[in-house]
Design goal:
The structure holds 2 protein chains of 2 kinds. Chain A is an alpha/beta fold. Chain A contains 9 helices and 10 strands. Classes of the chains: A alpha/beta, B mainly alpha. The structure holds adenosine-5'-triphosphate and magnesium ion (MG).
């Protein structure tokens, strides 16, 4: 039987002190969705993602993942996530390979399996040459490749990715985009926050536009284009968020 | 998973000692040599003092006991304080935490790994003093090695207890910082301090105030032995010290072991509690001083500040410090604990006006104050340059490195100097030490503040860690340890230069002979030259290094 992969956010409110960072947003995604989460700087995208990942407490609303409430800690719940933060953390005294091993073990994978996956990804993302160097010697994009691999390593149900393409060269961003597409075919959810509108336009089937804490649009790109009579996402984006500028 | 985390930690430690080339090798050897000679040096100092005291007929042993008891209490409070100082960053602000919390790792393990970090960060500076102290006690009383090992184990237990209590306090306080504003908390704390002082002076009435001054040595000894020995004997430090002395006197310590086990049970319960609330605390943690009105702040636009580059850089440092509640919050807690130290000093019946006691006492107090200055600077001053992180390249490319370094020196000096004078003058007033010695201490504190500042700022520039954001961790790294040890060695050497004229002064003034000041002046000059040498050396090295960093 196919697993029931889902992400439901209901009336989420997150405040920083008196400031409302996320203002009553609701959305629902199911397996196979690639969701592009876009919006101007400071709109509340990162905050929302952190709430989903269980890294931030929130004031109101609920988030459920595969039917489980994310406020309670549960190993299976955590295992169903792959999270890439906007400023990822790498142990700079570990090598890329060791880091991936460590992550794999944390997610309860067996040694052989980890090795197989590392092998596979090191070829795909071309980091074979330097994965045995300490990560402190890496460039930004090199780190990003390791981080993305660490997220795909344990094949989670839900990917939460904050700015995935920052710092990647054209070739690797192509590869990463293809990876995303490939994964979405296997009953998974990809939740991608990005400023690269072409990425959203190209691979996402659903779009959310966030502005000043509110989700001002949620639905497919086609619907949106029809509604506003604009031909590309950039114009749409500027149109929807123009009062804020 | 426990295994994985431990293995990871072990790897980090091994990596930082990894030898890739000859330079690393030299570095490692120097490091080990410095630490080893430092430990040995401290050991010999304690050994000599204790040995000297033990030979003093009847009161010797009691005196060693009292001195150790003050030392142990102080060490306990220091452990406790530094645990508080380090735990906000270790338990809530380290970037690693976001990673760990996003994985399926069990909360117990995350807590455990941070708890071990915190135990290490907060205790190394105290341990490098305490281990030699315990060893010297064992050797002076000719105890077998097995006892010394047991005492060391007990001491580690004490670190465990004090760290846990420190962490508990931060967990409880973290909500306080979230709910109230800076001004409110500062006001409350000062009100509490003032009231407890008044309360203490009026109601508790320390015995020392009733003691007739100028007793003969015999009377003093009798008085001392009639007194209840210790104020803090139910603190873990007191219990462990009693066990040590019971071992020395071949007495049984069942009662003390019992008390100790109660502490351990208590601490274990605390830890369970902390683990159970850690996730909730972490995800709810937000330590940002919010400027609710979002008003434009004009400090930087002030004409005077703008004109003077030094003032400008210092203003920047002060603003950053004041806007980080974890930094000033920790300093506040530290001040409260200093208050406790003062109280313990006043309540200790050891302070009586005879030349011998005053000599030991003023020196012990002075040594202690300098020790505090040194360890604090390692935590607050040494990391300052590292904390600039990547922004350092902006600074280096825009203003002269000399000016930048000097601005750091001025700021750090003022902080340390004010703290040092505060410590010394206040304790001296309580101890009723001779005005001449008070004056002398003030001058020396000035010199020491200067020396300690240049050592910590200098090593901060020579051995920085621009990648780390947690100041406690920066301070516990290679550079931090080197600068801590150098500061302590500097203080130690200067104090020993000073010890002979001070002793002479006390002996002569006790016998009513007038004392010439010239002797003091010579010794002071030696210390000043010593300090200046260090200054010149470190200044040149620091500037040279600062110019080479490419971030
Ligand atoms: N730790 C914090 N304390 C207080 N306010 C915060 C904190 N983190 C974020 N905010 C506020 O929350 C709002 C949303 O921030 P968030 O980081 O979610 O934006 P974002 O959409 O990810 O922006 P960007 O595109 O720049 O990454 C912002 O207005 C920001 O000022
Ligand atoms: Mg963001």
């Amino acid at each position: 039987m196919e697993k029931n992969v889902s992400l439901k956010i209901k009336n989420l409110v997150k405040m920083y002190g008196k400031k409302v960072a996320v203002n009553d947003i609701s959305l629902e995604l199911k397996g196979g969705d690639i969701f592009g989460f876009i919006g101007p700087n400071g709109a509340g995208k990162t905050t929302t993602i952190k709430c989903i990942a269980g890294l931030l407490d929130f004031e109101k609303g609920s988030i459920s993942i595969n039917g489980m409430d994310n406020k309670k800690f549960d190993v299976n719940l955590k295992r169903s996530f792959g999270y890439i933060p906007d400023t990822p953390y790498l142990y700079d005294k570990l090598t890329g390979r060791e880091f991936l091993f460590f992550v794999g073990r944390l997610y309860g994978m067996e040694k052989e399996e980890i090795e197989k996956r590392i092998d596979e990804f090191s070829k795909k993302l071309e980091f074979k040459d330097y994965m045995d160097l300490k990560t402190e010697e890496y460039s930004h994009g090199m780190k990003q490749r390791i981080i993305i691999t660490s997220c795909f390593l344990h094949s989670p149900d839900i990917f939460l990715i904050d700015e995935p393409l920052v710092g990647l060269d054209p070739k690797s961003s192509r590869i990463v985009k293809d990876l995303f597409k490939e994964f979405s075919k296997t009953n998974r959810i990809l939740f991608i926050s990005t400023h690269t509108l072409s990425l959203a336009e190209e691979i996402c089937n659903k779009i959310g536009i966030m502005d000043k804490g509110k989700l001002v649009y949620f639905g497919s790109i086609e619907n949106l284009k029809e509604n506003l009579k604009k031909s590309n996402l950039e114009e749409l984006f500027l149109e929807i968020t123009k009062d804020g500028l | 998973m426990v295994y994985e985390i431990l293995l990871l930690k072990a790897k980090f430690i091994a990596r930082s000692f990894a030898i890739r080339n000859f330079k690393d090798f030299i570095r490692l050897i120097t490091f080990l040599f410095v630490i080893l000679s430092f430990l040995l040096g401290i050991y010999f100092v304690f050994f000599k003092i204790f040995n000297y005291l033990v030979c003093l007929e009847d009161i010797g042993k009691g005196f060693v006991y009292r001195i150790s008891s003050i030392l142990f209490t102080t060490i306990f409070f220091l452990l406790f304080t530094s645990s508080i100082i380090t735990s906000i960053s270790t338990f809530f602000k380290t970037p690693e935490l976001e990673f760990l919390f996003s994985t399926p790792m069990k909360i117990e393990l995350i807590f455990l790994s941070k708890f071990i970090d915190n135990g290490f960060f907060s205790s190394w500076a105290t341990s490098i003093i305490s281990f030699p102290l315990i060893f010297s006690l064992g050797k002076v009383f000719q105890m077998e090695n097995i006892f010394i090992i047991k005492w060391i184990a007990l001491f580690i237990l004490m670190i465990f207890i004090s760290t846990s209590i420190g962490v508990l306090i931060i967990f409880l306080l973290s909500d306080l910082f979230k709910k109230f504003s800076l001004t409110f908390i500062v006001t409350i704390i000062f009100v509490i301090i003032i009231f407890s002082f008044i309360f203490f002076i009026i109601f508790v009435k320390p015995e020392i105030f009733y003691l007739p001054q100028n007793l003969s040595m015999d009377e003093v000894n009798r008085y001392l032995s009639s007194l209840e020995i210790e104020q803090f004997k139910y603190l873990p430090s007191g219990i462990i010290l009693q066990i040590i002395f019971n071992d020395i006197n071949a007495k049984s310590s069942n009662k003390n072991y019992f008390l100790l086990s109660i502490y351990i049970i208590f601490v274990l319960v605390i830890l369970m509690f902390l683990i159970s609330i850690y996730r909730k605390k972490y995800i709810g943690f937000n330590l940002v001083e919010r400027n609710v009105k979002n008003k434009r702040n004009k400090i930087f636009e002030n004409k005077i500040v703008l004109k003077n580059l030094y003032l400008f850089l210092i203003t920047k440092d002060v603003i950053i410090f004041l806007r980080d509640p974890s930094q000033w919050g920790q300093s506040l807690i530290f001040i409260i604990l200093l208050g406790i130290y003062f109280l313990s000093i006043i309540r200790s019946p050891i302070y009586v006006k005879t030349s011998f006691y005053t000599y030991i006492l003023s020196f012990a107090n002075f040594g202690f104050a300098s020790y505090i200055m040194a360890t604090l600077s390692v935590r607050f001053i040494y990391p300052l340059i590292s904390l600039e992180g990547k922004t350092f390249s902006i600074i280096r490319n825009s203003i002269s490195v000399e000016k930048y370094f000097k601005s750091k020196l001025i700021f750090n000096f003022l902080m340390i100097f004010i703290l040092g004078e505060f410590l010394i003058v206040l304790t001296n007033i309580f101890l009723k030490i001779d005005p001449f010695i008070v004056l002398l201490s003030t001058i020396i504190t000035f010199i020491f503040s200067f020396g300690i500042t240049i050592i910590n700022t200098g090593f901060g520039a020579i051995l920085p860690d621009f990648n780390e954001k947690n100041p406690s961790k920066i301070a516990s790294g290679f550079g931090g340890i080197v600068s801590a040890i150098s500061s302590l060695v500097y203080v130690g050497i200067s104090l020993s230069i000073l010890s002979s004229p001070v002793k002479e002064y006390f002996e002569k003034s006790f016998k009513g002979i007038s004392v010439s000041i010239t002797n003091f002046i010579y010794h002071l000059i030696v210390i000043i030259i010593f300090t200046l040498l260090i200054y010149v050396l470190l200044y040149i090295l620091a500037i040279k290094r600062l110019k080479t960093y490419n971030l």
